[in-house]
């Protein structure tokens, strides 16, 4: 059995090497081919040229077999655009499969190809994709030998733009797929929900002070704007949101800085709410005393996609009104 496995691996690596050489030759030929522009996107024959961090990729105009290798950065916007992948990655928490911002129902029928930081090249190869959506942390050379691969930009605290990352992210993936109009429709629906919640909160909107913290092993840190969807949703609402000091973690003794009317706790350790209610430091916070401290799931609030942003909005509709 071991010799058969080795033979299979050898053949697979051989196929990858041949495909890589062919891809390199194709890329070389593409560079000397005249291009023309349609809808602001350069096209060569039946593909669309997309620039990304590792170069440029000729993406099929209508890809049918897409593999998305990060739940936040490329699976979330893909599903939001109404496109079903054939392959995806996911995390596991205490043996349970979880996807940030995306429901497992959204990927029914698709193949799990591993973890976001360690996808299986062999499983991806066997799916015969015609487009791979990756990040800069994935093995681009191997992936691009299998199929056209686009490196979708990742959030960066030091290079954050002026717009929320989840909005830039959706627009980028939409550009890759030629679905710009659909992306603007999705963003308009999100903005309508923002306005609906503002109207529901009325005058209280200018009075509510909100904090969001991650908790793990006695340390806390907070979501950053133009990076985490949580911060950007709260800012879009116009709430008084306590911004983090450069996104760095700090000791739990400093949590008094986040002594606000409402506190959302993203609990990385999966501790029960009673842990925080009885904690000598947390228990003195205004939100805890007034029963306005809420535990929120990591997979719903630790997100950087438009679907994740809408899940956060779902919870804000539930928790922000006074009668909750």
From TrEMBL:
<keyword id="KW-0732">Signal</keyword>
<feature type="coiled-coil region">
    <location>
        <begin position="180"/>
        <end position="207"/>
    </location>
</feature>
<protein>
    <submittedName>
        <fullName>Periplasmic binding protein</fullName>
    </submittedName>
</protein>
<dbReference type="Pfam" id="PF01497">
    <property type="entry name" value="Peripla_BP_2"/>
</dbReference>
<feature type="signal peptide">
    <location>
        <begin position="1"/>
        <end position="22"/>
    </location>
</feature>
<keyword id="KW-0813">Transport</keyword>
<dbReference type="InterPro" id="IPR002491">
    <property type="entry name" value="ABC_transptr_periplasmic_BD"/>
</dbReference>
<dbReference type="InterPro" id="IPR051313">
    <property type="entry name" value="Bact_iron-sidero_bind"/>
</dbReference>
<keyword id="KW-0175">Coiled coil</keyword>
<dbReference type="GO" id="GO:0030288">
    <property type="term" value="C:outer membrane-bounded periplasmic space"/>
</dbReference>
<comment type="similarity">
    <text>Belongs to the bacterial solute-binding protein 8 family.</text>
</comment>
<dbReference type="GO" id="GO:1901678">
    <property type="term" value="P:iron coordination entity transport"/>
</dbReference>
<feature type="domain" description="Fe/B12 periplasmic-binding">
    <location>
        <begin position="66"/>
        <end position="324"/>
    </location>
</feature>
């Amino acid at each position: 059995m071991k010799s058969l496995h080795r033979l299979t691996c050898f053949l697979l690596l051989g196929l990858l090497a041949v495909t890589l050489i062919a891809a390199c030759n194709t890329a070389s030929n593409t560079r000397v081919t005249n291009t023309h522009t349609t809808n602001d996107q350069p096209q060569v024959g039946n593909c669309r040229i997309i620039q990304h961090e590792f170069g440029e990729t000729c993406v099929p105009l209508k890809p049918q077999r897409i593999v998305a290798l990060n739940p936040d950065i490329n699976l979330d916007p893909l599903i939001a655009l109404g496109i079903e992948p054939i392959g995806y990655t996911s995390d596991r928490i205490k043996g349970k499969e979880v996807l940030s911002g995306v429901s497992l129902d959204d990927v029914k029928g698709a193949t799990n190809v591993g973890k976001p930081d360690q996808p299986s090249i062999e499983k991806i190869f066997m799916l015969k994709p015609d487009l791979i959506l990756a990040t800069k942390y994935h093995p681009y050379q191997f992936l691009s030998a299998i199929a056209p691969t686009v490196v979708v930009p990742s959030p960066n605290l030091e290079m954050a733009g002026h717009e929320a990352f989840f909005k830039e992210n959706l627009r980028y993936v939409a550009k890759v797929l030629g679905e710009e109009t659909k992306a603007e429709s999705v963003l308009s629906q999100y903005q309508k929900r923002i306005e609906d919640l503002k109207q529901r909160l009325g005058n209280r909107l200018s009075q509510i002070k909100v904090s969001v913290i991650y908790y793990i092993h006695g340390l806390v840190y907070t979501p950053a704007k133009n990076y985490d969807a949580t911060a950007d949703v709260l800012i879009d609402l116009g709430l008084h949101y306590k911004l983090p000091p450069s996104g760095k973690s700090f000791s739990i003794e400093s949590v008094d800085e986040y002594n606000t009317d409402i506190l959302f706790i993203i609990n990385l350790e999966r501790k029960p709410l009673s842990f925080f209610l009885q904690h000598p430091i947390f228990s003195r916070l205004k939100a805890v005393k007034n029963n306005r401290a809420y535990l929120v799931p990591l997979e719903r609030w630790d997100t950087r996609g438009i679907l994740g942003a809408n899940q956060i909005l779902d919870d804000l509709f539930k928790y922000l009104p006074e009668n909750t």
